[in-house]
Every structure is written in C-alpha cells, then in structure tokens.
Amino acid sequence: MSSTKQSVTVIGLGPMGQAMAGAFLDRGYDVTVWNRTASRADALVTRGAVLAPNVKEALAAHELVILSLTDYDAMYAVLEPAEAALTGRTLVNLSSDTPEKARDAARWAAEQGAVQLTGGVTVPPSGIGQAESSTFYSGPRDVFDRHRPALEVITGRTDHRGEDPGLAALMYQIGMVMFWTSMLSYWQAIALADANGLTAADILPHAVETANSLPGFFSFYAERIDAGRHIGDVDRLAMGMASIEHVLHTNADAGVDTTLPAAVVELARRGMDAGHAADSFSSLVELMKKAGA
Asked: Which runs of consecutive H residues, i.e. helices, occur in 62-166?
C-alpha cells in the first residue's frame, strides 16, 4: 500500500467511474483501477493508472476504495469473491440503490472488517472534479472527515447527512424522484408540441421559463406543508382538477400518449374523493404519504 502519496482504488469504470479515476489522476493520486471489461481502463492506464488483474489485488492496493457500480447487487457480485481483502478498507459506495440496501451493505462491510461511506453524486460524469458539484455522504463522521480531501476531488462540495448509512441514498433518490418526473413532463410537452407542428427548440424558452418558476412554488409550499396547512386561500384542488383535466384532454385530442397526464388526473381524483376539493392542491401530499388504493 502506498504511504508516500495519496492513493485510491476505483472499482467500476463506467462513465462515472472513469471520470472519478481521471479526476484523481489529475490531482496526482496513485490510482489503481479494476473493471470487469478491462479494456475500459486503457485510457486511464495511459495516463498513469494501474490496472489490477483482479478485485482482490485492487482492494489490496489502497485503503480507500471508490465503488462506482450499477447497484448494490453488482457490488456483492464483485466484492464477495474477494471478501478476505476487505479488512481495513474504507468503501466509498457511490452506486445507486435504495436506502435500505445501503444500510444492509454497510452492515455487510462491517462483518468483513471494512467500513462503508454511502455516497449520492448529484451530477453527471461531466460534473466530476468540479468545485461547484456536490455529493451527499452518510456513515461514520470520523471516516468522512479523514477522507474528506479525497472526496472533494470527486466533487468540490461534500454534504455529510449523518451517521445512518441510508441517508445519503435517501437524499440521492429524492433528487431522482424530481429529476425523472420532471424530465418526463418535458418529453410530454415536446410530444404535444410536435403533434401541433412545433419543435423542441420552438418551446424551449417557455419550458425554461416554466421550470425557473418552480423554486418559488417549492419555497412557498414547504413552510405550509411542514405546518400541516393546506388551506385553500391561494389555490383549491377543485380548481386545479379542472386544469389537470384540460392537460389530459389536450394531449388526447393531439393523439399523443396520455399515460403521464392520466396518472396526474387519477391522483387528483383521489384527493377530491378524500374530501380535499376546497383545500390547496398541496393536500395531495397527504395522500402520497400512503400507498394508493
């Protein structure tokens, strides 16, 4: 194990893993890499990385190990055959998965004599190594503090959310809830525009303006929701229901897929049936806290 230079092992060389390994090389780290498809390491090796022949040697190379894998099932598939080499290692698990799986993995790592820091990277590969980019972390605070300089190579901003190893995964998934749903709404808007002879470029300024208006709504409703105040003084679900149905009918009339707007209508109908017609449409949050019928 290198003691004269900062060092790290990166396991998993998809676009994110390659960007992370590259960022460490740029900062002068000794970098060992491993990937099931070894050829993905070629460009990194040219830049000075060491390609480990197997996972056991990749783990043995350095104490700090960055995992950039598809999910936690992939982590077990990669690491279980090399369990004996995990003792004394810090696993910074940046793989995407559920909070519960992150907690289970942290317990499993501890059983092998390792410690896990869960991470949730909030940027795409192009944001790796950038000072303004950020990553959520959770797990032992002392381990986070000890490795913070290395973590700040991945993204300049590091946000430790607590000792619970599931919290970073939770924050990441909260972001993904908003990202995927928001992007689907954009695709829906483009499909509707296309059906009416407009291009994505034609509606782009309006789409951006609409998206930029959302933070104001987030702030306004957050305080009310935390206080349990869904009063219909500014908006009412019954009024929103009419608008939501107009969206559905406009898409149906245009002949485009209505799966997404129909789902929104169904949720609003549940709110109406639950007696929230005169309440703010933020009252739908209370329905969404429980699994739907």
From this structure: 72-79, 99-111, 141-154
Contact 55, 81 (CB under 8 A): yes
CA–CA distance, 22 with 43 (Å, rounded to integer): 9
> In which residue ranges of the chain is CATH 3.40.50.720 found?
7-163
What is the reported pLDDT for 5?
76
Angle, alpha carbons 8-108-163 (nearest 5°): 75
CATH class in words for 7-163: alpha beta
Q: At 134, list the tokens.
A: 């950020």
Q: Which amino acid is at 152?
A: E
Give the integer Cα–Cα distance in Å for 277 and 268.
Answer: 9
Residues 6 or more apart in contact with residue 35 via CB below 8 angstroms: 11, 12, 13, 17, 41
Which residues of the chain are modeled with pLDDT < 50?
A: 1-3
Distance CA 48, CA 30 (A): 8
Strand 64-67 and strand 90-93: the pairing is: parallel
Which pair of structure tokens corresponds to residue 30?
Answer: 């000794």
- CATH assignment, 196-288: 1.10.1040.10
Among candidate residues 209, 193, 210, the one with its CA nearest the CA of residue 201: 193
Q: What is the pLDDT of residue 3?
A: 46
The candidate with the shortest Cα–Cα distance to 224, out of 281, 159, 155, is: 281
Whether residue 154 contacts residue 129, with contact meaning beta carbons closer than 8 Å, is answered with: yes
